[in-house]
């Protein structure tokens, strides 16, 4: 893991030692015969594979091949196609290599569980070494169950030591960024906080604009155990048709080139059919799998109860009430992951009429409503009163700050009459039942305090994103006003189209730095948090951005801690967020399936692990159809 990470394990890379390598080969019986090593009449040969989509791998491949050749090893170097990933995917699925050059995010941000489980667990999809260790699998099980963040650091370092002792991988290098600038680019360039956010609009002089590229998905793709076959499309009248996987690259977007869309009007995807790769090394138990869409959580619950659905996976798929009810149903199994995902909260928009004291007044009106949600819609989740878990590295200051109730009660000079001419606009995802439940409780709290309000229920993701993008027109995100002066609330209100937003942070494997960086995006991130922090009273946006981005430059732990303390304390004192819960991954399945396991990210479902379960739960097969009436007496 990177040196700036708390999971860094010093000394994890072994220095090259060709003489020791030669000795090990001698001891293994591979004798040097001239320029080649042989054993039992056979040459020692190795197939070394690299892919050109990461050009540095091909450069390193030449060096590695030469080092192995110098040791007497016959090296066959393969560079896969630069036009398509298919050749590499086929080689990896079949395991047709001895050494594979690979570039990988070991820790894009935050928790190490995703990477370690995905690349070193037995039969994991990213276990390109085809390596198996029961002891490491057991340690990974322990890591998945550990909630104390410091204990997770210690267990991670122990797992690293166990892995490196067996050498299923050899760490070559950690690359650094190099950015070359032409004279058409401003000289003030600063690298972005993620390697996929390299170019920003403010770096370009006039005449150059951002471009967004859309590329469809070619199927079948990937190296997993299953390949996609087709989609079942259903229109508003119930008519259906199947769309073959070969046509998936003609994807529908809300863009001008919609004439390439293969969906008819009012068609939606109701099912996707997958079949397994017969030659795949994992050899999953099920020959085919149907991924099915349901119109509501109630429909999912009904399908589980009538056994037409075997597994319901994911936080939004099953309601808390249905999940808790499944725990007492003998025909169902309710599963819950041991660690939290991202957290839900309400964002208070500092860019609108909400001054700090007004934010506190409104927070007092709605914070007590959380208790009702903890007994109902959010009962299966972990209660939160801080934006991030204080046990996360560098977040300990959150445990020393006042509670949400104490914070809101520190506000002064505001009454419900101050909102008489400016009703609060409450934004939420109307297609997310948990967001609807929170919004209902927020509005009930506002009503009880006599605060006028207006519902803004977004019916789809595009509409929700539009609400969160419009503010950029009224306030330039480099910290200086564009159309509206700082504090000109009448002007800002034209562009800030909401006041409260039911939102959520990013969750594991993303750490707090990632989410804080997202608050400083100049381009529209389509999330509410960025708008929430843009007009704070105690820290102008430009200063806030400077402090947040410093988190990605400090290696000294004390400096990083001081920056975290300042940023997190400011967000708290400004009353920008009211936390609700941290999500916990849940699933419900029947007894027809066994060996269930959670994935290591919210949308990762390790399907190939599932095995058939209790056959008595399978419904009786339908009776055979009557023979055709062909006039014979058979």
How does the helix and strand content classify structurally?
alpha+beta
- Report the portion of residues in β strands: 15-25%
Largest sheet: 7 strands, mixed
Shape descriptor reads globular
Helix content: 25-40%
Mean of residue pLDDT values? 81
Radius of gyration: 28 Å
Count of helix runs: 18
Features:
634 residues, 7-stranded mixed beta sheet, 18 helices, globular
Explained architecture:
The protein is an alpha+beta fold. 29% of the residues lie in helices and 17% in strands. It contains 18 helices and 19 strands. The chain has helices spanning 18-27, 55-70, 86-94, 113-120, 134-145, 149-166, 297-305, 320-326, 356-366, 370-374, 404-409, 433-448, 461-469, 489-495, 512-518, 528-532, 541-550, 557-573; strands spanning 31-33, 36-39, 42-43, 45-50, 74-79, 99-100, 226-234, 240-244, 268-276, 288-292, 311-313, 332-348, 382-383, 424-429, 453-458, 500-504, 577-590, 593-594, 611-612. The strands form 5 sheets. Strands 11, 12, 13, 14, 15, 16 and 17 form a 7-stranded mixed beta sheet that branches. A 4-stranded antiparallel beta sheet has the order 8-7-9-10, with no helix packed on it. The longest helix is centred in the first third of the chain and has 18 residues, at 149-166. The radius of gyration is 28 Å and the shape is globular. Mean pLDDT is 81; it is low at 199-222, 253-258 and 474-481.
């Amino acid at each position: 893991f990177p040196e700036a990470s708390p999971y860094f394990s010093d000394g994890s890379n072994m220095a090259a030692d060709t003489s020791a390598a030669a000795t090990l080969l001698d001891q293994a019986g591979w004798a040097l015969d001239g320029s080649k090593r042989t054993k039992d009449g056979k040459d020692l040969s190795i197939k070394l594979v690299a892919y050109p989509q990461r050009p540095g791998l091909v450069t390193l491949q030449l060096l590695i091949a030469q080092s192995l050749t110098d040791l007497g090893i016959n090296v066959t170097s393969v560079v896969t196609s630069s036009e398509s990933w298919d050749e590499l995917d086929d080689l990896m699925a079949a395991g047709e290599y001895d050494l594979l050059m690979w570039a990988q995010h070991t820790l894009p941000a935050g928790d190490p569980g995703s990477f370690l489980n995905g690349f070193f667990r037995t039969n994991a999809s990213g276990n390109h070494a085809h390596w198996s260790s029961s002891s490491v699998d057991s340690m990974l099980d322990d890591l998945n169950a550990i909630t104390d963040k410091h204990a997770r650091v210690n267990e991670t370092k122990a797992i690293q030591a166990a892995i490196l002792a067996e050498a299923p991988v050899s760490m070559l290098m950690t690359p650094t960024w190099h950015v070359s600038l032409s004279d058409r680019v401003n000289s003030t360039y600063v690298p972005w906080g993620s390697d996929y956010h390299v170019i920003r609009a403010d770096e370009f002089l006039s005449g150059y604009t951002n471009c967004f590229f859309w590329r469809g998905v070619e199927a079948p793709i990937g190296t997993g155990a299953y390949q996609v076959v087709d989609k079942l499309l259903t229109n508003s009248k119930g008519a259906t048709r199947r769309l073959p996987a070969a046509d998936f690259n003609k994807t529908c977007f809300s863009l001008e080139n919609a004439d390439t869309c293969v969906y008819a009007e009012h068609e939606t995807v109701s099912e996707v059919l997958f079949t397994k790769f017969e030659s795949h090394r994992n050899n999953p138990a099920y020959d085919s799998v149907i991924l099915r869409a349901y119109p509501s959580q109630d429909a999912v619950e009904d399908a589980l109860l009538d056994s037409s659905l075997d597994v319901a996976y994911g936080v939004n798929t099953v309601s808390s009430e249905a999940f808790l009810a499944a725990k007492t149903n003998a025909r169902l199994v309710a599963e819950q992951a041991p660690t939290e995902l991202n957290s839900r909260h309400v964002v208070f928009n500092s860019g609108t009429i909400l001054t700090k004291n007004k934010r506190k007044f409104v927070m007092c009106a709605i914070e007590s409503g959380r208790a009702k949600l903890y007994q109902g819609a959010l009962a299966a989740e972990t209660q939160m009163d801080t934006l991030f878990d204080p046990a996360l590295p560098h977040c300990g200051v959150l445990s020393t700050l006042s509670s949400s109730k104490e914070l809101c009660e520190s506000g002064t000079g505001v009454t419900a009459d101050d909102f008489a001419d400016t009703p609060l606009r409450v934004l939420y995802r109307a297609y997310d039942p948990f967001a609807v439940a929170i919004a209902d409780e927020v509005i009930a709290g506002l009503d009880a305090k006599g605060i006028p309000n207006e519902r803004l229920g977004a019916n789809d993701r595009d509409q929700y994103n539009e609400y969160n993008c419009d503010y950029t027109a009224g306030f330039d995100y480099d910290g200086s006003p564009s159309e509206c002066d700082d504090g000109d609330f009448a002007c800002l209100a034209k562009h800030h189209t909401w006041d409260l937003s039911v939102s959520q942070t990013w969750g594991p494997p993303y750490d707090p730095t990632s989410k804080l960086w997202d608050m400083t995006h100049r381009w529209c991130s389509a999330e509410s948090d960025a708008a929430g922090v843009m007009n704070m009273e105690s820290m102008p946006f430009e200063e806030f951005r400077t402090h947040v981005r410093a988190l990605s430059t400090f290696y000294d732990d004390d400096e990083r801690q001081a920056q975290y303390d300042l940023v997190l304390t400011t967000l708290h004192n400004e009353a920008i967020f009211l936390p609700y819960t941290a999500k916990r991954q849940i699933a419900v399945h029947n007894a027809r399936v066994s060996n269930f396991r959670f994935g290591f990210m919210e949308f990762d479902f390790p399907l190939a692990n599932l095995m058939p379960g209790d056959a008595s739960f399978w419904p009786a097969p339908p009776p055979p159809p009557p023979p055709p009436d062909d006039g014979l007496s058979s």
